[in-house]
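step=encode ok
step=design start
structure_in=
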């Protein structure tokens, strides 16, 4: 994926929804403002803007029925994909009647199938076929030459880490630990996200099995920080549990501070993410806010 394209020009109208507290704004391509890093950061600011964990842009080019997207972190950086961002986009598509389920979206150069499952009137139940996970240093572009002679990732104090390296279309380091804690997350998260062996950064999860069908995780997202839940992170954790043999291929329940997602992992590491999305609001950026982008 080329992450250094010109910023898209967006409309002022937005849709906001969340998956277990991990919220995204959906904007369509338009003519009101340029999604520069400064502008994106301001829109995502919870006090000076709308507030969000990221922005999903729905591009105009959909002549072949494929919905093309770009995604941005609240620090303004563009990234490959978000499981929750995709599911929030699906809720927007369903609310506006833009496509029939299942439909195909393209982001980061990959095409992904999204489905709307029957649910209650106040909630969306959305599944995303996340594709086949990849494992190992090459999957997350880890430069092992930067590591010491052991070629192992270590913590900030040189402590050994038990990690599984996973790509779900974006990079993840799953740290396996007996007792994931907030203090451990705040020590390891920012350290690993910006590790010199990772030119493009990574997402970080602390994870531990609960039983033969479930696990728990704490999450530090690249470009965001600690989050209550994450779609791709829950997929990476489920893959790590299957890869290490803690959980058999099949349905894996991933519990995070915001709640639980169901991730289905096949023997070949094909991944399906399913969980709730709740709409928060529809709105429009004010002329005063828009004026800050051009001033």
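sequence_out=
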């Amino acid at each position: 994926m080329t992450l250094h394209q010109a910023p898209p020009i967006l409309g002022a109208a937005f849709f906001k929804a969340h998956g277990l507290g991990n919220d995204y704004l959906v904007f369509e391509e338009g003519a009101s403002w340029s999604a520069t890093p400064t502008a994106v950061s301001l829109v995502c600011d919870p006090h000076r803007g709308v507030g969000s964990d990221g922005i999903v842009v729905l591009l105009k080019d959909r002549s072949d029925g494929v919905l093309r997207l770009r995604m941005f972190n609240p620090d303004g950086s563009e990234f490959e994909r978000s499981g929750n961002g995709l599911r929030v986009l699906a809720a927007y598509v369903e609310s506006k009647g833009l496509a029939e389920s299942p439909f195909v979206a393209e982001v980061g150069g990959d095409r992904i199938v999204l489905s709307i499952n029957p649910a209650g009137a106040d909630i969306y139940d959305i599944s995303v076929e996340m594709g086949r996970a990849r494992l190992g240093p090459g999957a997350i572009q880890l430069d092992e030459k930067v590591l010491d002679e052991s070629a192992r990732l270590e913590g900030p104090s040189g402590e050994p880490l038990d990690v599984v390296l996973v790509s779900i279309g974006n990079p993840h380091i799953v740290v396996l630990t007996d007792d994931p804690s907030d203090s451990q997350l705040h020590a390891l998260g920012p350290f690993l996200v910006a590790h010199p062996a990772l030119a493009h950064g990574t997402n970080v999860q602390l994870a531990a099995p609960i039983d033969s069908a479930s696990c728990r995780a704490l999450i530090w997202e690249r470009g965001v920080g600690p989050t209550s839940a994450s779609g791709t992170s829950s997929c990476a954790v489920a893959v790590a549990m299957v890869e290490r043999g803690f959980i058999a291929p099949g349905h894996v329940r991933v519990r995070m501070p915001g709640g639980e997602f169901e991730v289905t992992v096949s023997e070949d590491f094909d991944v399906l993410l399913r969980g709730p999305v709740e709409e928060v609001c529809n709105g429009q950026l004010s002329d005063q806010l828009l004026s800050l982008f051009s001033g």
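step=design ok
step=annotate ok -> The two ends are 31 Å apart (CA to CA).
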